[in-house]
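Morning F.,

Quick status update on the modeling queue. The single chain you submitted on Monday has been processed. Sequence for confirmation:
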Amino acid sequence: MGLIGFAVGTILGQFAGAWAYRYSKRRLVLAEWKSAVVSGVATAVVSSLVFVLTSVHDWAGGIGSSWGVSVFLGVCMGIVQGALFPGGPLDPRSTLRG
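Structure tokens below.
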């Protein structure tokens, strides 16, 4: 369940972060960096929650490892989402056009 949980948590976290970014830019009218922080935090929370619930820590760190491993991976996902591509998968400019 760990590998599937990692994939599902990553995808859900990315979409949650992208939604939070768009919401904070359009509705809350926040600056770019503030919206990126909101995006990263949303991604970290959603990813960490899914990772802990699906025991990604057992997959990544071995059977019996602390759930802190799952939280660490979720925080890493949040940093990536907030710093590298805060608009994420919902940003129409980020898609490849042929």
